[in-house]
Design brief:
Structural class: alpha/beta
CATH superfamily: DHBP synthase
Helix content: 25-40%
Strand content: 15-25%
Low-confidence stretches: none
Largest sheet: 10 strands, mixed
CATH topology: DHBP synthase
Strand order of the largest sheet: 1-8-2-3-7-4-6-5-9-10
Oligomer: single chain
Shape: globular
CATH class: Alpha Beta
Radius of gyration: 16 Å
Number of domains: 1
Number of strands: 10
């Protein structure tokens, strides 16, 4: 756990949003290939430019894994649709009902998604997140944001800024702090088979609401 003081690498949010100056600072970090720790609607994530394979590789190294599972966070539905090559009708229905929100949909990846952001079967996990900062940053940066929980491999996810380990922060370029409420429960992860949802990970949205 870190000390309670804020360092030069920290950006503070107010009511879930950043000042124009701070948003620009984080945007520059992302488009320049930096890695950030930031709040999502579920837990704190570690991420960066979702179109940059080098960023994905660096995040995997930071987390202590050869390869890690990534989610791509988008600012709006239209941006998310561009990342999937095929969208089953059931996926479109769930997106319309639960986005922005803690639901991650797994669909075949479209060409713009780098191989390092895809699963071994060629799919990609996508969400329009509930947190206003992640949506604002994705829109400002013009790219989806890599999102994977801000913890070392095998450790529990961080649900508050104080739970993010200092050594992980030291390996990143910026830390975005939100003292508001983070959901604390990972997103529900859903894929599709024969146009029917298949729950891969139970999470914030109960299965009976899918």
């Amino acid at each position: 756990m870190k000390s309670s003081t804020y360092g030069a690498k920290t950006v503070l949010l107010s009511n879930g949003t950043a000042t124009a100056e701070d948003l620009e600072r984080v945007r520059r970090t992302v488009v320049d290939g930096g890695v950030i720790v930031y709040p999502a609607g579920t837990v704190y994530g570690i991420g960066g430019n979702g179109f940059d394979p080098a960023v994905a590789q660096r995040i995997a190294r930071i987390k202590g894994r050869d390869r890690t599972s990534f989610i791509l966070l988008c600012d709006r539905l239209e941006s998310a649709l561009a990342l999937g090559a095929i969208w089953p009708r059931a996926a479109m229905d769930l997106a319309a009902r639960h986005w922005p929100g803690p639901l991650t949909l797994v669909v075949p990846a479209s060409d713009p998604v780098p191989p390092d952001l895809r699963a071994t079967d060629g799919t990609v996990a996508i969400r329009v997140d509930a947190h206003p900062f992640s949506r604002a940053l994705s829109a400002a940066a013009g790219c989806p944001l890599i999102s994977t929980s801000a913890n070392f491999s095998g450790r529990p996810p961080a649900t508050s800024w104080a739970e993010v380990e200092q050594t992980l922060l030291d390996a990143c370029d910026l830390f975005v702090v939100d003292h508001g409420i983070i959901g604390g429960i990972p997103s529900t992860l859903v894929s599709f088979k024969d146009d029917r949802p298949v729950v891969l990970r139970h999470g914030a949205i109960p299965e009976d609401l899918l």
